[in-house]
Design a protein that fits this description.
single chain; 309 residues; alpha+beta
Amino acid sequence: PEGKPLSKGQRSSSFGSDRDIGLHHEGDQDTLDYRIHAKHSVEGKTISLWHDISLVHIDAETGKETDYMNFVCEIPKFTRKKYEIATDEEFTPIKQDEKKGKLREFKKGDIFFNYGCFPQTWEDPTFVHPDAEGCRGDNDPLDVCEIGARIIKSGGVRPVKVLGILMMIDEGEADWKIVVIDKEDKWAPFINDINDVEEQLPGMLDAIREWYRTYKIPDGKPPNTFGLGERFMDKAYAKTVIDECHHAWESLISGEKERTMGDNHDEEVKKLVRKLSKNSLVALLPNVDEHPDAYPHENDFDNEDAVTF
């Protein structure tokens, strides 16, 4: 489909679906030590929900790419604990965010959609998108709002259909929000682009925007703002942003970003990139090419022993 990232931009060791992925819980819930790790359910090896799940969903039976993307859920709908992928920890588990030693949750209340991210994407803090009103990326995987009926558990991986995107400005950083729906949701056959959401589920998009506008107000912060006239852009536009963020992730984990940053960025941003690049490479290298069956059509590289992305 138009705008879908090419498979050669993904690691040959990626898991293309949730098959053979199990979740392992470490520590006690509601503590700073609690982590949700993904593991190979057969071999027992720990994997990264950010790096080891492919962006494009792969049919587990045929090994071929589908029209869907893989969504990693961090915060299930109808909950409020602020779980997120720990991008700076080994194997990037899911943890509950904390501030000054206190676990965070949404003071506004429960979120009404499944909230998570697209694996193998990164919002580059050195890049300013032309529609981001001069704001740089937020240094995290690309945020995703899944609007289906299913409650997806933290760490769950689901194939989803991309519908559109919202450009949010969060404390001076670009924080894109991709809108998707689970491919197995009963509404999925009727919703194929952002206009279909308003037609089939009237009020849903306005509610998402208002939730993001106001959710930090109970913390004493001002409302968030939005670019592009507060419009939700369509699927084609969303896929260009997804593609950009996937290529940024490639640059991060290959070390290219760190090597080519130059001196035109402030030292704080450069430190963020260096730290994330180092931690990503540490997480990636032990598992490279562990699961070549995920991309059987990618075995035609000139150097079969090379690390591939």
